[in-house]
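note to self: dont lose this again. the chain is below, predicted strucutre after it. 245 aa total, dont forget to put it in the shared folder this time
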Amino acid sequence: METGLASQNQLILQPIIENHLIELRRVSKAYDVAAGKFLALKDVDMQADAGEFVAVVGKSGSGKSTLINMITGIDTPTSGEVLVASTAVHAMDQEQLAVWRGRNVGVVFQFFQLLPTLTVAENIILPMDFCNTFPVNERRARAISLLEKVGIAEQADKLPSDLSGGQQQRAAIARSLANDPPLIVADEPTGNLDSQTSDAVMQLFANLAAEGKTVLMVTHERDLTQYFTRSIMLADGVIVNGRER
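---
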């Protein structure tokens, strides 16, 4: 019995060689609502490559969050395939997804979501502890290096509450890079920042894409389009365009 389960897990986790870092193939997602089935995504095909900085735009209810949840493995498709970083995300169970996500996806939220009782450096070390990706004696040095990368190394031993909004978002970006994931997903990361701070944060994301990361960002802000490689627009669960800048 154990042998069969091990073989099944090995099959699920076996890498699939793809040309794209992200590939969605005819992905649909249906939710049960009072009126019946609600299709949040409808046969969506999408690709993104390493080094792209892609904006995901659309009105509220268009399917943006559902699309992001499919790609990050937070939710699973009703039908279709989700391939990310050469892995069949749609085929994994929750335990496998947690391990895969920790190593392959960095997430940046609108409201930062830094743990308030940990210092900034400790917040960045936490993903390394969870995934055991770097030797214990190297983790703080890596955290400091990432804080230097985002320009706030001097804030390493402060609590998040001692930082400005822009500094907290920089810390959140550093945390998303802790395990050196190929994919960074940001959900309205500039929604609570002033325009000058927004530009600085957007430049950080653009720099990450230039270094080879794939950055996928949900945003409502049209004045940030200069930073993106291309935009994907969703309407009623369907991609209505995917134009380059």
